[in-house]
Design brief:
heterodimer; A: 337 residues; alpha/beta; seven-stranded mixed β-sheet; five-stranded mixed β-sheet; 35% helix; B: 416 residues; five-stranded parallel β-sheet; 13 helices; globular
């Protein structure tokens, strides 16, 4: 075990997979020589050479389109879109091509690619450095959408994603790159070295896809979250004194339904929390699933706490970001019913 | 506003020919056969600038092979090419009828463009990968190891359809024949081909990719990304632009072809580029070989604009008489690729009078027999097709629980 930030854990996963599988290639904008604007690929080009790890033109459609061709050849590309806010030019390649290739060719061709995208807010990123577009992927059949919340999961999930033969959208909450964040922006950053989940095995391991985890066991209500919101929920539980069971989805879609259902059936109450905008957000799907599978166990309406239905603002960041106060208020509301 | 300054006017290109008015084909900027130089395969991209604005042609009006691009080609190979073209045309003609008879739901022919895909196929080797559009069926029909029955089963979405009824007719996929899965989304495969070529280079292999796009689709963003990536990484890829003058009802000038060429885009991106008579089988063979040799020699990508004419309707859902002259193809100055190669072979004494009719009859019989056999495996119309279970497979490598549940729901309904 070694203390790692999420950045180091992600780099360790790519390092390991570049070493283990000669079909793994890593590329994207500023990913090669410079090592990535977030340092996630630092040193990899020097270690594996320019034909395995390289810089790409500023063209998200080109980066993903070329990766699909490489996947069809038999490589296992791990590509980076610098910010999730900039995946839109690659939308056609992701939705029409990567997601559909196996289906439309009846398995003749596949797209075993992983697309890494830093996502999420809480960093004064404004409109185009803060978005959480996960629901634009979860609605696409054929894609897997994954989001880790800590270094240990980040490494294990990224290795599992790279090894998976389906196209995986790997969303990395950049607010968690250097330490956990519970929404208390006025407090100093806690580094991963001070958190147990910053202890990461140095060698190979995987965290299976479609496996959620009970991040904090509890009896009073079930909070379903992923990414940064896991820590916000933890803070809300502590600050309200409500014994919330916090589920970290990890794989957003396809997801681990039994873990959710077992928890809500136990607690009878459910709060769903995400940074992304509310309307038609992934919370709507989660609400529907909980309602369908746990209706007779529910003792209160399912609550959703999400980003407002606005573009992500700059100056109003902390009025926008669903922090522990808003989540805590929802916890109280579902307990009152 | 100062006096005398003219007001601005929006320019919207129009074809010269519309229904009832003859097309003026002078916009094509043709060269005479044999006139255009053949540079060495290691020419720099900039050194191909003139070739992007002229036209590589080998066959003259008398059917003789002239000039520096005349390929070394055994008459037997050319006969094979002629038969492949005739076979493609016969296949298209029969499938058009099958669509009208409601045996298949949809079809797209490549009438008039047969030389490009069939000639190109003969310049590639086993293991190369083509990333075709829906109008390169000649890549498949030029091959001895692809059965027409298999293609027709796809067209009929029947129980032998290799794509299990999931795809529209003509959206073939055949990895073993170097034919990438066709997508309905235009231009997407152009950059994928570049990625495939990059992969071959990353692995230190010897195979090259061949990318295909139409004139209209060059306006898509992926055309630009493909050229940029191919140039940046010197990818072993042939970037084929089939300029058949029409994108459904839209004349190629609306795609950006007015007063320029599509080959010129390649030079602008630092890619060696050729503009070639797409109805001249020998020019197709020669230019394809030149580009393939370049790619295989790590000399970089080549863009080829194939000048041709979409002689038929865009698809079985299209009526071209509503937007262009009915007799347009008869006036197209580059003629008919089948007639031109047949004339050349007759001049060599390698295609005798009477062979054409006999071959035509044999190919028609072959297609009819293939159609009959494919019909034995059912069709969309009679319900003999892959079952509903096939609908849920291959979305993912392993079926996730939500799809297993949905499959169960379909099964329950069908029982009830």
């Amino acid at each position: 075990m070694a203390a790692m930030t999420m950045i180091q854990a992600l780099r360790s996963a790519m390092d390991l997979m570049l070493e283990r599988d000669h079909n793994v290639v890593v590329y994207g904008q500023d990913v090669g020589y410079f090592g990535g604007v977030f340092r996630c690929t630092e040193g990899l080009q020097a270690k594996y050479g320019r034909s395995r790890v390289f810089d790409a033109p500023i063209s998200e459609g080109g980066i993903v389109g070329a990766a699909i061709g490489m996947g069809a050849y038999g490589l296992r590309p791990v590509v980076e879109v610098q910010f999730a806010d900039y995946f839109y030019p690659a939308c056609d390649q992701i939705v029409s091509e990567a997601a559909r290739l196996r289906y439309r060719s009846a398995g003749d061709f596949t797209a075993p690619i992983t697309i890494r995208m830093p996502c999420g807010g809480g960093i004064y990123g404004g409109q185009t450095h803060s978005q959480s577009p996960e629901v634009l992927f979860t609605h696409v059949c054929g894609l897997r959408t994954v989001m880790p919340s800590n270094p240990r999961d980040a490494k294990g999930l990224l290795i599992a994603s790279i090894e998976n033969d389906d196209p995986v959208i790997f969303l990395e909450p950049k607010r968690l790159y250097n330490g956990p964040f519970d929404g208390h922006h006025d407090r100093p950053l806690v580094p991963w070295s001070a958190h147990p989940l910053g202890e990461v095995p140095e060698g190979y391991y995987t965290v299976p896809l479609e496996s959620a985890t009970v991040f904090r066991p509890g009896q009073a209500l079930t909070a379903i979250a992923y990414g940064t919101m896991v820590y916000v929920c933890e803070a809300a539980a502590k600050e309200t004194g409500i014994d919330a069971e916090i589920i970290d989805l990890r794989s957003i879609w396809p997801l681990d339904l039994p873990t959710l259902v077992a928890s809500v059936k136990k607690t009878g109450r459910c709060v769903i929390v995400h940074e992304a905008t509310r309307s038609s957000g992934f919370g709507a799907e989660l609400t529907a699933l909980v309602q369908e599978h746990c209706f007779y166990h529910l003792e209160a309406p399912i609550e959703r706490v999400a980003g407002w239905d606005t573009p992500y603002p700059h100056a109003q960041e902390w009025a926008y970001f669903p922090g522990p106060e808003r989540v805590g208020a929802a916890f109280r509301r579902v307990m009152e019913d | 506003m100062s006096q005398g300054t003219p007001s601005l006017r929006l320019h919207v290109p129009e074809p010269t020919g519309r229904p009832g008015h003859e097309t003026d084909f002078s916009y094509l900027h043709l060269s005479r056969a044999g006139e255009v130089r053949r540079p060495p395969v290691d020419a720099t991209p900039a050194d191909t600038s003139d070739l992007a604005y002229t036209l590589v042609r080998v066959l003259d009006d008398e059917g003789r092979a002239v000039g520096p691009w005349a390929p070394e080609a055994d008459p037997a190979l050319l006969r094979k090419g002629l038969v492949a073209m005739m076979k493609t045309r016969a296949f298209d003609a029969r499938m058009l009828i099958a669509q009208r008879q409601k045996k298949i739901s949809f079809y797209m022919q490549c009438l008039g463009e047969e030389a490009i895909a069939t000639g190109h196929a003969l310049a590639l080797v086993q293991g190369d990968m083509c990333f075709p559009t829906y109008r390169q069926q000649g890549l498949l029909l030029a091959r001895d190891d692809v059965s027409m029955v298999e293609l027709i089963c796809q067209l009929m979405s029947n129980e032998r359809d290799p794509l299990r009824g999931r795809q529209l007719p003509v959206m073939y996929s055949m990895k073993r024949a170097g034919f990438f899965s066709i997508s309905g989304n235009l231009a997407t495969q152009f950059i994928q081909a570049v990625g495939w070529g990059m992969a071959s280079a990353i692995k230190g292999a010897t195979h090259i990719a061949s990318a295909w796009i139409g004139d209209g689709s060059t306006a898509e963003a992926d055309f630009h990304t493909a050229l940029t990536f191919a140039h940046v990484y010197r990818a072993p890829v042939i970037l084929n632009v089939v300029n058949n003058q029409w994108a459904i009802s839209t004349f190629q000038a609306i795609a950006g072809g007015e007063a320029t060429t599509f080959a010129a885009r390649g030079v602008g991106c630092g890619i060696a580029s050729l503009r070639v008579d797409g109805n001249d089988f020998l020019a197709v063979l020669a230019a394809s070989r030149w580009a393939a040799e370049r790619a295989r020699g790590n000399l970089g990508p080549t863009l080829i604009e194939w000048l041709t004419y979409r002689a038929g309707a865009h698809s079985t859902s299209d009526d071209p008489s509503r937007y262009r002259p009915a007799d347009d193809w008869q006036h197209f100055p580059l003629g008919d690729p089948v007639a031109r190669l047949a004339q050349h072979l007759r001049g060599l004494g390698a295609w005798l009078d009477g062979e054409q009719a006999a071959m035509q009859a044999a190919l028609e019989a072959e297609v009819t027999a293939a159609l009959k056999e494919a019909e034995r495996y059912g069709s969309l119309a009679d319900g003999h097709m892959a079952g509903a279970d096939a609908m849920f497979e291959d979305v993912y490598e392993r079926m996730p629980p939500h799809l297993q549940e949905q499959r169960r729901q379909v099964a329950a309904f069908r029982k009830g």
